[in-house]
Amino acid sequence: MSSAHLTTRLLAAALTAAFLCLLPPTFAPAAPLIAAPPLGERWFGISVDNDQVGFYRQLTTALPEGGFRIEGNGSVRMRVMGFTKQATSREVYQFGQGLALQSLEVEQSINGSLSRLTGKQVAGGLLIRRTVDGKSRDRLLKARGAVIPGPALNLYPLMKSWVAGKVYQVLTFDPEEMRIKEVAITVVGEQPAPDGQPAIRLRNNLYPFVDNDIWVDRQGNTLLESVRDGLVVTRAEQPDRLAAVVSGVALAQKDLIYDFSLVRVEPGLKQPPAKLAGLAVAISGYGPRLPLLTDGWQWAERDADRVVIKTGALRPPLQAGGLHQTPDSRYLAAVEGIEAAAPAIIAKARALTTGKAATAEQAKALAAWTAQLLTDTVDDSGSALMALEKQSGNCQSHAKLYTALARSVGIPTRFVSGLVSQDGRGFLYHSWAESWLDGQWVAVDPTFDQLPADPTHLAFFEGHTLTELAPLVGIIGKIKISLLEEQ
After folding, report:
1. What average pLDDT does the structure give for the chain?
2. pLDDT for position 324
3. pTM of the predicted model, to two decimals?
4. Do residues 459 and 414 both lie within one domain?
5. Domain shared by 278 and 416, yes or no
6. Per-residue confidence band for 70, with pLDDT thresholds at 50, 70 and 90
7. Residue 436's pLDDT is what?
8. How far apart are CA 35 and CA 334, in angstroms?
9. H or E stretch covering 353
């Protein structure tokens, strides 16, 4: 598996590499280490000059008819030597026992340019269809020999009678340049990874002047890939360690994580979200151990292997003595990031609500002012006070500031996250708030100035801290939505 396949491709035009000398071969020949790719899901963090810039998720499965399937999803946003590059990619490759490519699907966005590729093996090469802005073009890429998918390049030497110092010449497909390239993979030898794990070190020349150093374990799992002596590193990580990166960029909708985190709905809603009165959906892929809000503005329950959520007019009637109890004091508390007791927050909230007796009227004024004040940005401001000071931030910033303002004037309010649709064709990860108004939780979206929020707001869990947002890493890229009913 080449986990840095995406990363290296994104950096090809950005980096000027120094020459890296190959270590002399000092190891004895060895027999093949593996007969097939390791199966399962793997996550990788991507960093540039020690700054985390993205992630990559890869799932390898065996096909019933033989062969294997690799699905990779990733997002990277970086600035290297004054060069800025942003990209997301979805890649699906099917290949045989010997790693020979059979078919592919690649969707990618690079600096805002969207494209989709599909391809299959034919006599003499690969037949590729490229679609950009709804226009398609077919092209036959000739190849003399098997073409190895990029994410499987690191497996090739381990499935051969590998010899330290030996160079393997293989063909691979480059989706960005849409051409078949010859790649040299060198087995440096058995050498611990930089963190000390036992490993086999490889090196390839996937791109001119940019050496790619790789450490894999004896089962074929990539541990680490390094471009230009550690300038760009793709490192295998546990999913929870990536929670900060994934949840942070997933909730920043203007980041290119959009393309990875978008949950599509086919054929889409018939009505614009703003005109909906109610919505009912079924969500598959939502793990049984993940939290789920069941006492809020929506109705939600687990049904076998899926979650059913109903909002607005389609939500079942509230029952007296049921889940909708008066909220406790924590929803009025000042906490780190939501500084409801800060003098600046209190003063602004009181100024905005003076003369408004009804609690719902006060909440509406606070939400409208927050939406108007903050300039939308990719990054979270960090806290309600910082949002007030900077007057900018993403949806998390809007929700934190509104929550602090509302709590400061005695309106019980909580920070929630989940999905929302703006165009009716798909759902994006988003944060908003719920306030206790007239005896029930009401969804308030201070990013889009909605009270109540439209019925496409599907809340998964509450809380604004990293620990509370961490479950996103177990959802993004996995769930699917089926439309049950709209009204």
Report:
1. 83
2. 53
3. 0.61
4. yes
5. yes
6. very high
7. 95
8. 57
9. helix 343-353
Based on the fold, state whether residues 226 and 250 are members of the same structural domain: no
Query: Cβ distance 163 to 30 under 8 Å?
Result: yes
User: Could you tell me the two tokens for 275?
Assistant: 């005109």
Class of residue 219 by CB neighbours under 10 A (exposed 0-12, middle 13-18, buried 19+): exposed
- Can you tell me the distance from the alpha carbon of 177 to that of 256, in angstroms, rounded to the nearest whole number? 20
Length of the chain as a residue count: 487
Q: Does 232 lie in the same domain as 308? A: no
How many Å apart are CA 482 and CA 487, to the nearest integer?
Answer: 15
CB 298 within 8 A of CB 283: no
Range 266-282 burial, b when 16+ CB lie within 10 A, else e: eeebeeebeebeebbbb
**Tokens for 311?**
């909002």
Looking at the fold, whether 198 and 214 belong to one and the same domain comes out as: yes
- Asked if 312 contacts 276 with a C-beta cutoff of 8 angstroms, the reply is yes
171 in the same domain as 254: no
CA–CA separation, 204 vs 222, rounded Å?
Answer: 14
Choose the final residue of a domain: 170, 205, 237: 237
Domain harbouring 424, CATH code: 3.10.620.30
Residues 224-273 have pLDDT tens digits of 999 867 777 899 988 777 766 666 655 554 333 444 567 888 778 899 99
Q: Could you tell me if 67 and 95 lie in one domain?
A: yes
pLDDT tens for each residue of 344-402: 999 999 999 999 989 999 999 999 999 999 988 766 778 999 999 999 888 889 999 99
Choosing from 203, 219, 237, the residue where a domain stops is 237
Q: Show the domain range for 446.
A: 243-486
141 & 257 share domain: no
Are the beta carbons of 437 and 363 closer than 8 angstroms? Answer: yes
Q: How distant, in Å, are the alpha carbons of 79, 86, 148, 378 from that of 108?
A: 19, 11, 19, 20
- Residue at 358: amino acid letter: A
Q: Which residue has the higher pLDDT, 219 or 163?
A: 219
Question: What distance in Å separates the CA atoms of residue 268 and residue 418, rounded to the nearest whole number?
Answer: 18
pLDDT band at 278 (very low <50, low <70, confident <90, very high): very high
Number of domains composing the chain: 2
CA distance 120 to 94: 9
Q: Which long-range contacts (CB under 8 A, 24 or more apart) does 105-110 make?
A: 106/175, 107/259, 108/175, 108/176, 109/256, 109/259, 110/10, 110/85, 110/86, 110/176
